[in-house]
Specification:
single chain, Glutaredoxin, six-stranded mixed sheet, 6 strands
Length: 239
């Protein structure tokens, strides 16, 4: 099964903020993983394995109506302060007004940056929660607690306590973390975004249209993303 999420990079919206080379996650052996393509056109991973853990984690980070034809992808880094800024100011309205109303499919794509040493363990924490369909509670909890774990030399114990409040089965989550079971999916996210030219976070992809903001996050960014969504919805609604 190809990745459910990594299929809609036909839409590009660069919001430049945290901007350094992406970290290269440690990888487990992904021999046998295959290149795959999807009907709506773009990001199938050449490195992502296809097993039950990966497929569950992939599905868990998608919100909205499965029949929605407009995709919005958020390429993000849990340790990026600008990603937290975006999350705190604009994520809930985007979810409320579009994903929860069935207008879009909203998905998170991992883009850990090398300047953020705890970005990869935080991504693993979120994706192991995603295996249990708890990605979005983990996503919110990780951004809310970012100041507590971002500078820790060993953040796992803190991440454990953060995730414990999201309703996951902690024994299963800890097993997933110990095995680095979702790391190949994080690697696949990183590689595909990097190959597409993404080198900053947050980056947004809104169905078929690229938005740029060379000044970094600004008051107009949320309006630009919403405007792109509205334009995509209007275009899809035409007979």
């Amino acid at each position: 099964m190809p990745s459910i999420l990594l299929r809609s990079l036909a839409a590009c919206a660069f919001l430049v903020a945290c901007s350094r080379p992406a970290a290269t996650p440690r990888t487990t052996d992904t021999a046998g993983a295959r290149q795959s393509a999807s009907a709506d056109g773009s990001l199938a991973s050449s490195t992502m394995p296809h097993d039950s853990i990966t497929d569950l984690a992939d599905r868990g980070r998608i919100a909205g109506d499965p029949s929605a034809t407009v995709w919005v992808l958020m390429a993000s880094d849990f340790q990026c302060p600008y990603c937290k800024e975006w999350h705190d100011a604009s994520f809930l309205p985007l979810m409320r007004d579009y994903a929860q109303k069935g207008k879009i499919r909203l998905a998170f794509v991992n883009m850990p940056l090398s300047i953020h040493p705890n970005a990869i363990p935080a991504a693993e924490a979120a994706m192991c929660a995603s295996v249990q369909n708890k990605f979005w509670p983990a996503h919110d909890a990780l951004f809310a607690s970012q100041p507590q774990w971002e500078s820790m030399p060993k953040p796992i114990a803190k991440l454990d306590s953060v995730i414990a409040g999201t309703g996951v089965d902690m024994a299963q989550w800890r097993s997933c973390m110990a095995k680095h079971a979702t790391l190949p999916l994080i690697q696949a996210d990183h590689d595909k975004l990097h190959n597409a030219g993404v080198n900053s976070t947050p980056t947004f992809f809104v169905d078929g249209k690229m938005l740029t903001n060379d000044q970094g996050l600004s008051a107009g960014v949320a309006a630009d993303v919403r405007g792109a969504i509205e334009a995509a919805l209007k275009a899809k609604a035409k007979p």
